[in-house]
Structures are given as structure tokens and as C-alpha cells.
Design brief:
7 strands, 280 residues, 3 domains, two-stranded parallel sheet, 5-stranded mixed β-sheet, TolA/TonB C-terminal domain, 7 helices, alpha/beta, 29% helix
Length: 280
Amino acid sequence: MENLLKELRKRSLGLDEVVFEHRNKAYGAYQLRHNYGSNLSKAMFVGIGLFVSVAALPFIINAFKTDSVVVDVFPPTGPFILDDVETPDVPMPPPASAPQQQQVKTVEFVMPTPTRAPKIQKTVPTATEIETTTIGTTTTDGPVSPNVYIPIAPPNIGTGDVPAPPIVQPAIPVKNPDAILDKVDVEASFKGGVEAFRRIVGERFDTSVLDQSGTISAIVTFVVEKDGRISNVKAKGKDADFNREAERTIKDIKTKWTPAKLEGQVVRSYFRIPISMRVE
């Protein structure tokens, strides 16, 4: 190995010359290996230059930036001398005097007081006197001014005991205790829930009476009585045999329901439940 290195130094040959001796040096690999050192140096200097440029950019911007000058403006200080201003005297308006009431001709007209034994009262003025004079509480002389109104004293009405009219209470409609209700406060329920009721129906349903196969369904309605029994069972579906068997099965279930409630009272109520069977 040492002899090889000495021989290379004598012939001034590098490692690339030895590797590519007697080979095609025009191939790209020789040029890459031969220029690797210079390319690496160039890349390093370019990277250092870019890093230095980016780091120095804020300093360059600040060097060309013009600082704004803030000038504090203080309000003027005293003392201040104020000139005397003459206030003009504003004359006060004279107090308004109350308008004098002009005396006009009036005629006494007092409403009679209703009593059981009426006394002889003053003569009621005629229609002509009422039209040409002013009605008042006393009769006075003066110019005729029929447009002036003088209030008339109200009649003295007694304050005896007057029986109040009897209060008629509206008739309260009587609710039918045997009515079958759709809307209740608490719906009827089965012990274990509706799914438990469906499971019992499915266990007792006789599918042998059905002619067709597949999924058959119907809507079953019945009445939950006050004692928990069910009545008026009706099934509505496309298959008549399925409807009859559903009605028979539900009628045979003797387990009682919890009845519905309305305003805290046990009532009769409708209950609807869909039932479907898959027949093989």
C-alpha cells in the first residue's frame, strides 16, 4: 500500500486518475467525482452567504427606516384674565291676572230627589227659559248668554240597603266516567313493557292458520279497562287470517294491564300496538 502511494506521488496522479485509468473518462461519473470538492465548497459559501443575508436583513431595514418624532403638546397654563361681561337686564313679564267672570242670567234648575213621599218642590223652568238662559243652581239677573255652562248639583240619592242580584254559577259539565279516552296524563302500561307483551303474543301466535309466507303485519287496537282487563280487540291488516289470529291471541292473554290516569283518576283508554310476524 505504501509503495502504491509513493508511486502515485511520483506520477502526480490522484485517486480518481487511478480509479478511471484505462476507462472512459467522458462518462459522467468521472466528472462528478473530479468536481465534487469544488462543488461542495461553492455550495457551502452560497449557503453561508444566504444565511448572513437573511440575518442582516432586519438591521438593513432599520438603517433605512425614518424614526417618527413625537412632539408633546401641553395645554397653556395660567393665570388667565377674564373680562367683565355686562349682563343685560331682562324685564320680567307682569303677572297674569285671572279673567273676570261676567255675571249672566241664570235660571235655577235642580234635579228632584226621588223619595217615597215627595214634597212640593219648586216649579221646574219652562223650555223657553232653559233655551234663552243659562242653567244654574240659583236664579240671577244678567245678560242672556245661553252658551255658558254652570254645573247642576247632582240629586241626593239615598244609600239604603239594596239587595244584590243573585250570582248564577255556570253549570259544570259532568264528565262521563265510562268514556274511552285517547289523550290521558299517564298511559296504560303492561308489566315488563310493550316488548314483553309482544313477546307473549309471539309465543302464543299460531302461524299454521296462515296460507302465505313472508312478513305479515297489522295494527291492533284495544281498550284497557279501569280494572286492567283488555276489551274491544280489533286488528287491521292486509291478511284476514292474520288479523283473526292476532285478535284471538291477545284476547287469550289474561295478564292485567296498569290502567291509564287522567287528572289523578283511573280511566278507560285506547291502546294501539303494531304486530308483525315472519312466516317461513
